[in-house]
Design brief:
This protein is mainly beta. The protein is about 10% helix and about 40% strand.
Length: about 230
């Protein structure tokens, strides 16, 4: 095993839970899992979240294209290319961009259409794979993988990591949004009603203002609520 193969073993690329969201400074532990078993119904989609962390500054290519927008010395940067493939299915790979939250921490929030992104050393980046399941997709099990090829300087591109997955498509069709009815229930917070009626919260006047909503919210107490 040469030095470059050892270097590729330091790549941390791992599938993450469905609710995973990257955050600046958040340490992501690679769980070592290289396979995912997923289920979906027809007329929906499958989403696969990945966390990628490189030991050096890198360029991640999500399309088969050269990294022309970047001007780094070839000896100081690694090029990592991701490829999504599934038998009988197709999908797209996207990087997740971060925006600053109210607490001042940048968190994953935007699905980017960029074909390439810059990866900082030892900083986790979130990737998402979207695989649509059409309404006429044949039920059954489909196999696929997300492969990462890496090269640096004049080395040939090599397979660095591979995440495999299976998708069980159930014999159920999800109705399209246009086939269903839409019901909007605007729930009014009790403090908003107190402000709207210009009454003090948790008083008898407040209780009386809430009575028109009683049939929709359920039974309300007939006695005044204690003030805080």
């Amino acid at each position: 095993m040469d030095d470059y193969e050892r270097f590729m073993m330091d790549f941390e690329i791992s599938p993450m839970p469905e609710n995973f969201k990257s955050a600046q400074g958040k340490r992501v532990l690679c769980n070592g899992c290289g396979h995912m078993a997923l289920r979906a119904v027809r007329g929906s989609f499958v989403q696969i979240n990945l966390a990628v962390k490189m030991p050096v500054k890198s360029i991640l290519l999500l399309e088969e294209c050269p990294a022309f927008p970047y001007r780094y010395p070839v000896e100081t940067v690694t090029v990592l290319r991701a490829a999504l493939g599934a038998i009988g299915l197709s999908g797209t790979l996207h990087a997740i961009g971060q925006v600053e939250d109210d607490d001042g921490i940048r968190k994953g929030d935007m699905v980017l259409d960029d074909g390439s992104v810059e990866l900082r050393a030892y900083q986790s980046t979130q990737l998402t794979a979207f695989i649509p399941i059409s309404a006429d997709q044949k039920p059954g099990e489909y196999k696929g993988s997300i492969r990462f090829y890496a090269h640096s300087m004049l080395y040939d591109g090599r397979l660095a990591k591979e995440i495999t997955f299976t998708i069980r498509v159930e014999d159920i069709v999800l109705p399209s949004p246009g086939q269903g009815s839409f019901y909007l229930n605007l729930w009014q917070h009790i403090f908003n009603i107190a402000r709207k009626c210009e009454v003090r919260a948790y008083t008898q006047a407040h209780i009386e203002a809430l009575r028109p909503y009683q049939g929709r919210w359920g039974n309300l107490a007939t006695r005044p609520l204690p003030c805080c």
